[in-house]
Amino acid sequence: MKLYGNSSMQRLMILSFCCLLLTGCWDRKELNQLAITSATALDWDGKVWTISYQVVIPQSIANPNTGGSPGQQAPVMVFSTSGGSIRGAVQQSSLEMPRSLFFAHNRVIVIGEEAAKEGISQLLDVYLRNSDSRETVGILITSGEGRKILEQIVPLEKVPGAAIKNMIRNEDMNSSNFKQVSIYQMMTTIASDAPYTLVPEITISGEGENNTIAALKKTSFSNKLKLGRMAVFKKDKLAGWFTPSEEYGISWIRNTIKRTTLYFGCTKDSRDIKAAIRIDRNKTKMKYIRSSTGRLIMHVDVDTMGTINENACMNDLTQPKELQAFEGVVSAEITRLMTEAFQSAVKKNLDVFHFADKIHKHDPTFWKQIKPDWDEQFANLQFESEVRVKIARIGMSGQSFSKMIKDPGE
Hints:
The protein is globular, with a radius of gyration of 28 Å. Helices cover 32% and strands 29% of the residues. It folds into two domains: 30-242, no CATH class; 244-410, 2-Layer Sandwich (GMP Synthetase, Chain A, domain 3). α9 crosses α10 and α11 (355-362) crosses α12 (364-370). The protein contains 14 helices and 13 strands. The protein has 410 residues and is of the alpha/beta class. Strands 1, 2, 3, 4, 5 and 6 form a six-stranded mixed β-sheet that branches. Strands 10-11-12-13 form a four-stranded mixed β-sheet, with helices on both faces. Strands 7-8-9 form a three-stranded antiparallel β-sheet. The longest helix is centred in the C-terminal third of the chain and has 29 residues, at 320-348.
């Protein structure tokens, strides 16, 4: 009897043997061969691109001595390379690094203002073409050099790149003034009818810089990293700036308020802040209306509900009329924020509300008619709003403490 008489059996055994030869990580790279990058920065000096890298030092991260002992090493190192193209600048890293740069754990990229003005289309192209770059990396902008941001030591976090990512995530979830923006989100926005992307600014506040490990030995810092204004990109280039207050109003219009605390005065026209409401639930609907004269109207409906968590006014919120009046004050403050944000956007002619996308989605035929002169249409846009506020809870006390201790004779 022949052992391999069956040709099909022979082929099966040969294939099985080949599969055994192919097992394992044929393209593996050991950890001690990689330089793990936690953050990068992009700068432009008018001639060349400069890429800065915040590289994690593993032995420092694993060191249990986190109190800043004399022999402690910094958790990261920062260095830069330059080139005529972004990928060319990255390639230069092999001339001065004993390890290969590994970008899969890169958390954020900080773009210098000059680079933003020049345009970041090359950067977006790099992220589209290379498998080692993730499109979920967050984008921030700084008015100075991006490298300066990467050099700062951040308290409470060992890796500054992770700290910056957590900073914007914490703001997004708890205050809603600034939104996280990823490479992927920017690419998607650029491809829309309203190619405007809002990108948070990160700055170094205070005096001096915290760029040495000795800074961790202190209990106070003369400066720190801080979120500032909101930059607006038109396609891939910086087009303008919004103040934090204007960005807050934009968030209300765009229905991106998740959870936030809104501060307001005791009356509708008062700017003397004495009360606050924690917004627990919010829903904004934006729609367009065509007036009889042909003018476009942006109509915004806001339904919000929250809890009073501060009140230094004389209102007794246990009384229905007083509570209703308080809801009116909150409604007026939200309306003011949205109106000022709208006026600023129209003045700058920046459709950051993506109103063009809204029209295109609901009425493609009408959008085709107005698309050629959309800039003019947007400049003449009219704003209308209706804000409904429900105070669901007033806290543990109906009256303010100031009212309770006030002398009746005063």
